Amino acid sequence: MTIERISDTMQRLVCADGKEITLIGTAHVSQDSVDEVARTIDEIGPDRICVELDEGRYRSRTEVQGWENLNIKTILKENKGF
After folding, report:
1. Which of these, 17, 22, 39, 63, is most buried using a 10 Å CB contact count?
2. C-alpha to C-alpha distance for 27 and 24, rounded to whole angstroms
3. What are phi and psi of 6, to 5 degrees?
4. Residue 66 CB: number of other CB atoms within 10 A?
5. Tens of pLDDT along the chain (82 residues)?
6. Taking a C-beta distance cutoff of 8 angstroms, is the pair 23, 11 a contact?
7. Do 10 and 36 form a contact (C-beta atoms < 8 A)?
8. Where are the domains of the chain?
9. Closest CA to 13 of 73, 29, 76, 4
């Protein structure tokens, strides 16, 4: 496998069988990250797209009543408000 650094946020991995994987490090709240991912998808036209989320972000995307069950007091106490 070879690894090519394309930018500060992007790397291309080329496997021995010729398959390529493009990894993009993102900031979830950054419009620049959103734009970079969209531009890369348009340019490369990948067969598959994978998204890695930490457990908290995954739950916030999959739990329908996430906001209703949110304990604001605990979030602020644990300094997770921002």
Report:
1. 22
2. 10
3. -95, -40
4. 11
5. 999 999 999 999 999 999 999 999 988 778 999 999 999 999 999 999 998 888 888 877 787 665 566 677 777 777 765 5
6. yes
7. yes
8. 2-77
9. 4
